[in-house]
Amino acid sequence: MAFNIGQYSIDKPVILAPMAGITDLPFRRLCHRNGAGLVVSEMVTSDVSLWDTNKSRMRLVHDDEVAPRSVQIAGASPDMMAEAARENVKLGAQIIDINMGCPAKKVLNKAAGSALLQDEALVQKILESVVSSVDVPVTLKIRTGWSTDQRNGLAIAKIAEQSGIQALAVHGRTRACKFKGEVEYDTIAQIKQAISIPVFANGDIQSAEQAKQVLDYTKADAVMIGRAAQGRPWIFKEVNHYLEHNELLAPPSTEEVKNIVINHVKALHAFYGNFMGTRIARKHVGWYLQTLADTTPFRSQFNRIEDAQEQLDLLNEFFVS
Q1: Where are the beta strands (DSSP E) in the chain?
Q2: Residue 53, pLDDT score
Q3: Which segments of the chain have a pLDDT < 70?
């Protein structure tokens, strides 16, 4: 089930969705090791004057990235988006992904993300501006429309293809629906039928069986998984196994989970340093504990620790007990 994004061949039909504050370099590497065919970076603002903040600097680290390096940008100005694309390519991006799917208020207030879906002419200008500014493939992530009354995902998809976009990810809800309500797999299927570039189905894919159902139903080239990978990065391996063998992969052993969690936390400490690393580790460990259905007081104990080595010691104890 391989497909191409420009000159890059992606051999596994399951993609890690970009998630702000989550898909940092350690998490992208982890998901790639666990079978994600493509991993997309956190959204970076198109305003390069803001790149000096610590948060943006961390998001712009593309060294030692798994190839092809896909970097997502967000903004509402065709010129600024083009500049951001060029600068990211200079920093090592091999694919530029444009965000027109984010429903977050702080992104919408800048008329970016899914707010752009209300203005098809501006969508076209941004896409053409970015595509013509770089010599790497440009991809796009959208929702099915701004609201249930304004479902124009199909029109946007056609504009995208005409503008030179090389692949399209579709979150099967409108902006107004955020992450609630049924996912519109019918709309994703219509979009796939109407355009010839690869289409990725996104929204509420929580299991290997569901991934196969969505691919069979929509005929999409890949599924894009976001929230279901939090605390469960092995979901990519599970999906690949099920698609290949039509049988469920046995869940990872306690020892395997322990190794994943501890190596992930170590990578966060190394990437962010002790102060930030221990804090960012808390939310990831919280998601792992949810996956493990942990009901002990361990999480509140872990969240009070501010020392990197202490975190690792406590995790070792948790998996032994």
Answers
A1: 3-5, 8-10, 14-16, 38-39, 44-45, 70-74, 95-100, 138-143, 167-171, 199-202, 222-225
A2: 53
A3: 45-65, 101-114, 146-149, 174-181
Binding residues for FMN: 18-20, 72, 141, 202-204, 226-227
Return the residue matching tokens 């080239």. Answer: 221
- The reply to whether 102 belongs to the active site is yes
The predicted model scores a pTM of 0.90
Catalytic choice (30, 84, 102, 280): 102
Name the packing angle between helices 185-194 and 153-162 (round to 10°): 30
Q: Which residues of 171-204 are buried (b: 16+ CB within 10 A; e: fewer)?
A: bbbbbbbeeeeebbbebbbbbbeebebbbbbbbb
Cα dihedral angle (175, 177, 179, 183), rounded to 10 degrees?
A: -100
Binding site listing? 18-20, 72, 141, 202-204, 226-227
Share of the chain above pLDDT 90, in %: 69
